[in-house]
Design goal:
eight-stranded antiparallel β-barrel, Porin
Length: about 160
Amino acid sequence: MKKLFFTVSIFILSIGMANAQTAAKTIYFELGGPGIASFNYDMRLQKKEDGIGFRIGVGGFSIKDDGAIFVPLGLNYLIGKDGKNYFEVGGGVTIVSIHTDLSDDNDIGTFETTFGHAYFGYRLQPKNGGFLFRAGITPIFNRNFFIPYYAGISFGYKF
């Protein structure tokens, strides 16, 4: 009886382990979007391919003595049934640090700001890993501006 119980227990555990999924994780480069030109990490919050997830990134640019660093943070939700093609909707905040030359005396000024962003787009994310593609509309806004038709495109890897 103990042997049968042990065998059945091992069988049930092996089925459970075979069906266990890990949360989908991706890394990608985004041109446009809330990070302007940024490298990002994205992960589902549940052990599945779709559903709710988060992103964090870092990006920026520099032109002569002026530059900016962007840190986009956000939540997103993937909707799809075939395990590969998804509609993505999300939003978040981007932290911005701007460095600028204020005068000819090499006096440098730095200030920080934030802006909100939304995301509505398409995501190609193969179930078993591989090439990731994203494209969508990313409205950005804060108290002083609203840009409704800003966009972004991303290329990366799902693992």
